[in-house]
Amino acid sequence: MRLGIFGGSFDPVHLGHLLLAESCREACELDKLWFVPAARSPHKQNIEPASDAARLEMLKLAIGGHDALDVSSVEIDRGGISYTVDTLTEIHEREEDADLCFLMGADSLADFPTWREPKKICQLAKLCIVSRPNSPRIDLAVLSPWLNQQSSEKTQPTIVAMPQLDISSSDIRQRVSTGRSIRYRTTRAVEKYIETQGIYRRKSLNRPSQ
Questions:
Q1: What is the pLDDT of residue 155?
Q2: Does 2-167 carry CATH code 3.40.50.620?
Q3: Is the pTM of this model over 0.70?
Q4: How many CA atoms lie within 13 A of 206 on its CB side?
Q5: In sequence order, what E strands does 41-181 have?
């Protein structure tokens, strides 16, 4: 089985996440793709995310009906700061027969040498690097210390081009907090969940009318 791993805060999941996942699923010929929400991102430790339960539920609502997509709570269950190498190690131990493919944006590639144990990440999973129209130029030389250029195609990174979709979780949170529409930025099911649960709303917007 070829299993894709897509990590992130997903706070909330939006259409850009879904398009990225589907683009990589097709390009890398993945049998399954797991969304893996972080317990605490090492790059966003100063941001308090929506609850773990809410982020998991929104993901499940967003991918409902797609048999190849699933949600894994492996990082949330482990708790603490979520490091990619720990997650891939755990999934590799659980899914011994799976060939792992780790999804990452082109903007993250330049920082990859600063990640925890980049060599082991490359040993555990094939990298699927997503390039958008406004992404920085992809320089695979960054990976040269950990990838043998003569190794099999199975271990070489795949570059996936996807359309530009200017949507972000931070913009959605800001829109909700100020009472603006998020229609067509995420799925209708996620939009309604955010509305009914009162997620991301300012306290002043939650007060009952006098």
A1: 73
A2: yes
A3: yes
A4: 12
A5: 69-71, 99-105, 125-131, 158-161
